[in-house]
Automatic annotation (TrEMBL):
Any Pfam family hit: Helicase_C
Species per Swiss-Prot/TrEMBL record: Corynebacterium tapiri
SUPFAM superfamilies the record matches: P-loop containing nucleoside triphosphate hydrolases
Domain Helicase ATP-binding intervals: 23-181
GO molecular function per UniProt: ATP binding; helicase activity; hydrolase activity; nucleic acid binding
Gene3D superfamilies: 1.10.3380.30, P-loop containing nucleotide triphosphate hydrolases
Protein name: DEAD/DEAH box helicase
Coiled coil location: none
Keywords: ATP-binding, Helicase, Hydrolase, Nucleotide-binding
PROSITE patterns: HELICASE_ATP_BIND_1 (PS51192), HELICASE_CTER (PS51194)
Lineage: Bacteria, Bacillati, Actinomycetota, Actinomycetes, Mycobacteriales
Keyword flag Hydrolase: yes
Length: 880
């Protein structure tokens, strides 16, 4: 019996063809890339690789992108192979590290490779789960470092979500890893039904057996938009109730903000919604109380534990990165056990954690990407809805998009049916990477490795296509230029090509500014709507913008959540319900007041007629119109009117303007393409050499007999893996953090690690001690010098030190309670949730661990270890 036959014989289910194909590649000692949808079962190929290594007496490392996924996979493999056979390494946790199978985060393996660790000696298999994380903006480079750094004999098993350029990625893997099979499956083991919810009705998105949008759905939306059918946006508890009535729970509702998730939880708490039986509720209470037994009661009070547990006991929860990690893990465990029926989550839940639901709900198809609000991509939509459908439990998964005015079902259908999600490398050499590569391979071999990266592979491939495109586009531009010049001569206008092109570009700029002004005005109006709704009081009479004329309404119940205000109103036409900012484009106007008795407030829908009668009796004067306006600078309009071309005969001017616009657009495309090629030719190898130039100046490397050698200072830098690695190394080298006690050291080091989610207010941050203040000031001065050197060497600037967390870090290390430390962070300019605070402490501990290994003096090393011990208490220790 072959190894694969033996492995399959112990499974309780039959393998799909793509799973068998991937396992055969592993058995034939070939690397393999397996691309399949979320929930398809691709991890079985990685589990087979672990079983093969165990049988052969060699080692398998199973890497994951996040600690939660590492913990989950560790427990899965322990169940299969026993505690002695499986270990776990996540940076802050080490269990049985010499085991034949070790689960770890990808960074741990990268660090092993750079340290030439003896743990790699018998390594034959590396599983890289969620290998598409290679495209992650912040951490993606680590995946390429591992792929490029592994010994040639090691089999690589890459497990990826479905990507459209899997062949390109596979071709690169063959180039750098040798024989690599590509296994791609688009098959979802649990089919996904696409739905759209309009009010309380849930419609199929597509016609049965077709890719056409459901005609009934389109008709319903048309009637609503013509105001023929009543439409009322549902509150979160009502949405969950509708899903419960249709047997579509458990459900995950994706809301793209932490505040939105918390707001949804509180809305459900305020409602009568209960999704659990009394037995389930009692079991949840028991499990939760056991899980938090080691957290200080005072800290639990700060965490609003009683209220949070009450929500869990009723069957619903929030899940986002701002929560305490221990609380997040409790939610995950309860959901997997089927005890939670509804979870309101940010998109971080879609990243690998095994937490599927029967239904996924999307409230909106727009999310903030860190810079602006942008539409979901097809890849993001598929990643989110991929959580729908539990294998072995559900016959069908459900994706439900909530309709709102201006949402086109055809756009949703396009998202649901598009299958183009390219994997794009984010690899770029950094200081730690450069020093480690020179240390391991020397400069020439390091350059060859970097030039073999997927980033360079993609850049080279794109340059070939771009060069061909430049040739064709240059011909088009020349042709358009000739046509424009000839027509100018024929019409004999008093000017030339430069004049009409300048005029057209002014008009383009005006159009662009008008669009931007409209977008800005929309954003400002949305903020104003939230502010207005949040301030409304009982009895306020408001005017709401309508299709023809403003409509009057009275406030029956005010909003209770300022960040997501949802007051209850009754309109003059008799509609009664809650409104929120998502359905209102123009801010309401308060025009008067009526008296609303208490019994009406308690039963608003039952007393609709009383409110409408009061509105009629009040004879309120409604605004004549409520229109959205956006202002555009009149400067450009004046420039256009005063431009010489504006005085040309209109017919001649407009004919030439059309030609000039076509020419201008073609030339812009050509110039952009040339710039892209120019940037691509500035290769990663050149970037690497510029890094070595700076490191040589700073004595981290030196040249001997034409070869780069890593100095003693460079050896220290090689062991610093934080984002601000060179800044930390410079601070240690120059003694910036000497003579600080453990708490002061924690505060000073935090400035190089902490990254505020919100911009820090201008002004200095107060810190507890003079020594710590001096250290932070000196750290900022070192950064200023480093940034100047980086500009000179044409390198990206290291992130500027951020002191917003320093006082909170100092106080926590000094033993202060959680609530006090959160207040200290807020005073410093960092509005942190408990989850943010814990995550920042864990990141600080990682950096302090590196300081303890690389500091120049025994005192700093000793104080770094003491700081780690002081920070690792309470909620931080439980989360770790």
């Amino acid at each position: 019996m072959s190894l694969l036959d033996e492995f399959v014989s112990h499974l309780s289910f039959e393998l799909d063809d793509f799973q068998l194909q991937g396992c055969r590649s592993v058995q034939d000692e070939r690397s393999v890339l397996v691309c399949a949808p979320t929930g398809a079962g691709k991890t079985i190929v990685g589990e087979f690789a672990a079983a093969v290594a165990l049988r052969q007496g060699t080692r398998c490392f199973y890497t994951t992108p996040i600690k939660a996924l590492s913990n989950q996979k560790f427990h899965d493999l322990v169940t299969d192979h026993g505690e002695d056979a499986v270990g776990l390494l996540t940076g802050d946790v080490s269990i049985n590290p010499s085991a034949p199978i070790v689960v770890m985060t990808t960074e741990v393996l990268r660090n092993m490779i750079y340290a030439s660790s003896g743990s790699l000696d018998r390594l034959t298999h590396v599983v890289m789960d969620e290998i598409h994380f290679l495209a992650d903006r912040d951490r993606g480079a680590v995946w390429e470092e591992v792929i490029l750094g592994l010994e040639d004999h090691v089999q690589l098993i890459g497990l990826s979500a479905t990507v459209s350029n899997s062949e390109e990625f596979g071709e690169w893997l063959r180039t750098v890893r040798g024989d690599t099979d590509i296994v791609v499956s688009d098959h979802r083991p649990i089919p996904l039904d696409q739905h759209m919810m309009v009010g309380r009705r849930v419609y199929e998105l597509f016609e049965p057996g077709s890719d056409r949008v459901n005609g009934q759905l389109l008709s319903k939306i048309e009637r609503v938009e013509r105001a023929e059918d009543r439409f009322r946006p549902l509150g979160r508890p009502e949405v969950i109730s509708v899903l419960r009535d249709r047997d579509m729970l458990p459900a995950i509702t994706f809301i793209f903000s932490r505040a939105g998730c918390d707001g949804a939880l509180f809305q459900c708490l305020r409602s009568q919604l209960v999704l659990t039986t009394s037995e389930e509720s009692a079991l949840i209470k028991e499990l939760v109380d056991d899980a938090v037994a080691d957290i200080d009661p005072e800290d639990l009070q700060v965490l609003r534990f009683t209220q949070w547990r009450a929500a869990l006991m009723r069957g619903f929860a929030a899940h986002h990165a701002g929560m305490l990690p221990a609380f997040r893990h409790i939610v995950e465990r309860l959901f997997v056990r089927g005890l939670l029926k509804a979870v309101f989550a940010t998109e971080t839940l879609a990243l690998g954690i095994n937490m599927p639901a029967r239904t996924v709900v999307l409230e909106k198809l727009v999310k903030f990407n860190g810079e602006t609000h942008a539409d979901l991509t097809p890849g993001q939509y598929t990643q989110l809805t991929g959580r729908a459908g539990r294998r072995g439990i559900d016959h069908m998964g459900n994706a439900v998009v909530q309709w709102a005015p201006a949402l086109d079902p055809r756009a949703v259908a396009g998202l649901a049916s598009t299958r183009t999600y390219p994997l794009v490398s984010t690899f770029a050499p950094g200081y730690n990477m450069a020093i480690n590569m020179v240390k391991m391979n020397g400069r020439e071999e390091s350059l060859r490795l970097i030039e073999k990266s997927f980033a360079q592979f993609q850049a080279d491939a794109s340059v070939v296509g771009d060069v061909r495109a430049i040739e064709k586009e240059s011909q088009v531009v020349d042709s358009l230029e000739d046509a424009l010049d000839n027509r100018i001569r024929e019409l004999a206008v008093p000017g030339g090509r430069a004049d009409i092109v300048d005029y057209v570009q002014l008009r383009q700029r005006l159009s662009r500014e008008e669009r931007e002004a409209k977008q800005r005005a929309s954003t400002e109006r949305k903020k104003e709507v939230v502010a207005v709704l949040g301030k409304l009081q009982v009895g306020d009479v408001i005017a709401l913008a309508g299709p023809k004329r403003p409509q009057l309404a009275a406030v029956v119940t005010p909003a209770s959540q300022p960040h997501d205000p949802r007051p209850w109103i009754t309109t003059e036409k008799g509609w009664s319900g809650r409104i929120d900012a998502s359905g209102i484009a123009i801010p309401p106007i308060t025009i008067g007041r009526i008296r609303v008795p208490k019994n009406v407030r308690n039963h608003p829908r039952r007393n609709t007629r009383m409110i409408t009668a009061e509105l009629r009796r009040g004879h309120f004067e409604r605004p004549k119109s409520m229109k959205a306006r956006s202002r555009v600078s009149s400067k450009i309009k004046n420039q256009i009117r005063e431009h010489p071309v504006h005085a040309w005969p209109v017919s001649d001017r407009e004919e030439l303007a059309r030609l000039a616009l076509e020419y201008s657009q073609a030339k812009s495309t050509l110039d952009a393409r040339k710039a892209t090629v120019s940037r691509a030719k500035d290769t990663l190898g050149s970037h690497f050499d510029r890094i070595l130039g700076l490191l040589s100046e700073m004595d981290y490397v030196e040249v001997e007999a034409g070869e780069y050698q890593v100095t003693e200072e460079g050896e220290r830098l090689a062991r610093i893996h934080a984002g601000s690695d060179l800044l930390i190394a410079q601070c240690l080298k120059r003694g910036v953090w000497d003579n600080l006690d453990p708490a002061e050291l924690a505060g000073a080091v935090s400035t190089c690690v902490f990254e505020n989610r919100k911009a820090l207010a201008e002004g200095e941050v107060d810190v507890p001690t003079d020594a710590m203040a001096a250290a932070i000031t000196h750290t900022q001065r070192v950064w200023g010098e480093l940034a100047s050197d980086e500009r000179r060497h044409r390198l990206p600037l290291s992130r500027e030190p951020d002191p917003a967390f320093a006082t909170a870090a100092h106080q926590w290390a000094a033993g202060a309670p959680l609530g006090y430390c959160l207040q200290a962070a807020a005073h410093g300019g960092a509005e942190l949730t408990p989850g943010d605070f814990v995550r920042s402490c864990l990141q600080l501990n990682d950096a302090l661990e590196q300081v303890a290994k690389t500091a120049y003096t025994d005192e700093v090393r000793r104080n770094a270890r003491k700081a780690i011990g002081a920070i690792s208490r309470g909620v931080v220790a439980v989360s770790a």
